[in-house]
Amino acid sequence: MVVAVAAVVEEEEAAAVEVRVREYDGGRDRGGVEEVERECEVGSSGGGSGKMCLFTDLLGDPLCRIRNSPAYLMLVAEIATGTGTGSGGGGGTRIVGLVRGCVKSVVSGSSHGKDPIYTKVAYILGLRVSPTHRRKGVGKKLVERMEEWFRQKGAEYSYMATEQDNEASVRLFTGRCGYAKFRTPSVLVQPVFRHSLGLSRRVSIVKLEPRDAERLYRWHFAAVEFFPDDIDAVLSNALSLGTFLAVPAGTRWDGDVEAFIASPPASWAVLSVWNCMDAFRLEVRGAPRVMRAAAGATRMVDRAVPWLGIPSIPNVFRPFGLYFLYGLGGAGPGAPRMVRALCRHAHNMARRGGCGVVATEVAACEPVRAGVPHWARLGAEDLWCMKRLADGYTHDTLGDWTKAPPGHSIFVDPREF
């Protein structure tokens, strides 16, 4: 299984097709959009290939993955059918493609190594083109129209995410749309077992209030790429289930975050939990029978002898939810161990919430990555591509962000997962 955050398209050719691109209308377009989504089931091998793929059920809300962003837009591409009916809901038209986008201010670098530089960036996600209308320029037209809106909103950069092995998507964006390969984070996924995971007695975990979490995050992530300026809106969102701080057992904690920042312990870690389960559900389709049987056997054994704590694979072949772990960070030699404790705590939250997996996305060189428990076969290696939209540079000290070397960490916004 692969948890994908990628646009799934095929390489476009310049063949002309009469396509109208317009803003999504929830009253008339939902049926057509859902049909295109079904045709473009998300997975590393793509949909309709007879191989495993990941289907995303948006629970009737095509805007769910961008709705919580400061500014967002969804576009659809439609063609005339000449039949008087169509999946797009309008007479004589049919929706053959769609794309979503949002705009926000994020950290792009720092001045003197500490003062954050905020830049307005745009994010493209959920690009879909019906298989019957690929290689006709539909995807490129959707991207170009979305970029027009990005510029109107003052975005200086546009970026997108896909899996590294999605060659068609990479060719479209880097070959035809002017994007450059930028960052290569990893999606790490852990199944949620029937049994709770024990927590280390050497670690104490405290839950932070959103305001305290904001202070801690603005201090720790001041120079981390893609850290959002509106982190307060993220932390106070109903889908954010809390921020948790891990410190060595016995560490005095009186709830004073400012005192913690002034004198932190030798090792500590922090993360937040986002409830994707209430936004969308996932389902693995096309799995071989032997894989289904093997996964079922692990659950059977776990039910029969739960006291053994045998890891079992949840039934990901039916719709399941996930919790996304964001804002992973920390310091000190024991930080990975602290993160491991936090991830186990999040796992137990997801178990109580009825989720199938917990997932996170981290930079290739993330210092606390070693502490994130995950199953390698369930994850994915992502590729983020970026394009400069503006002519000048708002921050001369930064220059062209697309050419900046990667840092050790990256902040992945849960609103866009």
From TrEMBL:
<dbReference type="Pfam" id="PF00583">
    <property type="entry name" value="Acetyltransf_1"/>
</dbReference>
<dbReference type="GO" id="GO:0016747">
    <property type="term" value="F:acyltransferase activity, transferring groups other than amino-acyl groups"/>
</dbReference>
<dbReference type="InterPro" id="IPR016181">
    <property type="entry name" value="Acyl_CoA_acyltransferase"/>
</dbReference>
<feature type="domain" description="N-acetyltransferase">
    <location>
        <begin position="50"/>
        <end position="204"/>
    </location>
</feature>
<protein>
    <recommendedName>
        <fullName>N-acetyltransferase domain-containing protein</fullName>
    </recommendedName>
</protein>
<dbReference type="InterPro" id="IPR052810">
    <property type="entry name" value="Plant_NAT"/>
</dbReference>
<dbReference type="InterPro" id="IPR000182">
    <property type="entry name" value="GNAT_dom"/>
</dbReference>
